[in-house]
Amino acid sequence: MIGRLLIANRGEIAIRIARGAREMGISPVGVYSDADEHALFREVMDASIRIGPGPASESYLDGEKIVAAAKTLGADAIHPGYGFLSERASFAQLAVDSGLVFVGPTPDAIAAMGSKIEAKRRVREFGVPVVPGYEGDDQSAERLRAEAKRIGTPLLIKASAGGGGRGMRVVDDLARFDEALASARREAKAAFGDDAVLLERYLRRPRHVEFQILADAHGTTVHLGERECSIQRRHQKVIEEAPSVALDPELRARMGEAAVNAARSVGYTNAGTAEFMLDEDGAFYFLEMNARLQVEHPVTELVYGVDLVHEQLRVANGERLQFTQESLVPRGWSVEARLNAEDPAHDFLPQSGTITAFDVPRAPGVRLDTGFRAGSEVPVYYDSMLAKIIVWGTDRAAAIARMDATLRETTVAGVATNLPLLRAIVADDAYRAGDTTTRFLDERMPLFRLGESHADDAAKRRIAAAILARGDAWRLGGVGVPVAFAVDGTTVRAHAAYDGTRWNLAGDVTGAVEPDARDASYEARGGTVAIDGRPVRWTLPQPPSADAEHAHAAGSGDVTAPMPGKIISVNVEPGAAVEERALLVVLEAMKMEHRIEAPVAGTVQDVRVKTGQLVTSGATLVTIGAA
Taking the C-alpha atoms of 386, 239, 534 and 414 in order, what is their torsion angle to the nearest 10 degrees? Predict the structure, then answer.
């Protein structure tokens, strides 16, 4: 029997597993990187050991260090959580070879399902339909290019290993296939250590529907219904719910049978998820099997009344499942929203920094899974998810109403978040009507108007108050302190005089303010403040220069890093002529690649970075001069 469990993960999932383990009388212990030295999840462990620096490749992806930590802490089992090493067959084998119980499927099952190529081959033999495409062993660029031409556009390039949207690219024009292939392979290699890809026909308006699987080692395999995960951005899920409005009992039975057959095709045990695409004509296709606990598992737990972590631990202990397929009946409806540290007003750029306020209202039917609180630091090395907000209601309308109220009352400050997007989705008529395909955000995002200006006079006073609260200003009655910032393309200059109680602004913005930085974040060249729950970005104005022409060139020609990250590739050299939007640099931040493009046409005057270099937010990457 498992007595002490090493949780090889971080953040909210480490806390979730630790809570489940402790409820079963199992002692949870953990590991942490330098970036997580003060992280919340360490407080719920009975003990934890440092395993390396912040980058995941030097800490959470180092299986040898994790197994050594398990031995040092006296653990007899390892739970990998999700992401990181959770779907690495080699890690599962290492744990087993070291005499530890691996809480998950067998290494052989992980290897079979961890490769989307092998998974498709296996499930096809069990009569499970798959998306047409190419999943051959020949991974040469020439063969992939030929297969792409055969399949045609729209085409999806997908990493064979891993998931979470990493290593996925949609190709609408075959002229850009090589660039998309190189990018997908690069991202897959960095995230999963494997750059093999497969090609699929890209379905334009399908639903993404997945089935939760549980299987014991005694021959029982069941499904716990479906989750609809169609609302995605960059192939990463944003809103999930259970059950799905698109399935009737007959279709649920057919898809559930296919999911169980997919699991049986590899002798699967423990918890897993079979993912499908459900086309507009009612046809469904197997996508992949996630051999782990899913991020969105709470909606299934709330609807079926089953604790999936408890079941994982029981199966790992060799116990039989205590329920049959017929006994698993859904009750009510559950919705999950992923709260991410990203700026919806600026193309959802990932954010890092210190959270200054974090309040999600707790009420009946509301669950919060998070690894952060006010005062927590959001590192640059990991995924941008801050929390999962999960609600339950007696039906879909009740669940949506509860989520709507919860999101409207949620406050997060210090870093920009996707809270405005979540609020907009839940309030959207198409969402409430259940019209949720994978194209939902492409079609509805323009209506949300997340990037619109919000910098009226009240917003400008709020920015001034945040700047004054930084501590740079000194308080001397009657003496003006200059305040300057740029917002929405306009430079705002004012003087603030302290009267012993508050600051009085005079200039481009007027009025009385009190210094307040509770919902503000700061970067090298500016920051954001929250206005009605939406982040408004401001910057420091360009310094004055005697050479107006040079100042203009510096303002328009310097291309800077929008966030801290690692340079993955440099695509230009000094002297090169570039057109507007030409690719200059690829920056990796928070596990995603970001294209840094030329803001203007011109000639590259200077390249300040090289491949592999770490850069800070606001660092100059490339300088472009007049053509």
Answer: 0
Compute the mean pLDDT over every residue in the chain, rounded to the nearest whole number: 89
Determine the Cα angle at 521 with ends 533 and 357, to 5°.
60
Residue-range domain boundaries for the chain: 4-103, 132-201, 207-446, 457-539, 548-625
pLDDT at 453: 61
* pLDDT value at residue 452: 66
Average pLDDT in the 239-264 region?
96
Q: Quick: pLDDT tens for 501-513.
A: 888 899 899 999 8
Which residues partner with 493 through β-bridges? 484
Look up the CATH architecture of domain 132-201: 2-Layer Sandwich (3.30)
CB-based burial, 133-144: b 16+ in 10 Å, e otherwise: bbbeeeeeeeeb
DSSP 547-577: -HHHHHHHHHHEEE-SSSEEEEEE---TT-E
Contact of 96 with 110, CB cutoff 8 Å = no
Q: Which residue has the higher pLDDT, 284 or 564?
A: 284
Q: What CATH number belongs to 207-446?
A: 3.30.470.20
**pLDDT the model gives residue 468:** 83
- What is the H or E stretch that residue 533 is in? none
For the domain bounded by 4-103, which CATH number is listed? Answer: 3.40.50.20
**CATH, domain range 548-625:** 2.40.50.100
pLDDT given for residue 473 in this prediction: 47
Q: What residue has token string 């792409």?
A: 148
Residue 256 tokens, joined: 């559930």
Q: Is 38 helix (H, G, I), strand (E, B) or coil?
A: coil
Sequence-distant (6+) residues with CB within 8 A of 352 are 341, 377, 378, 379, 380, 415, 563, 564, 590
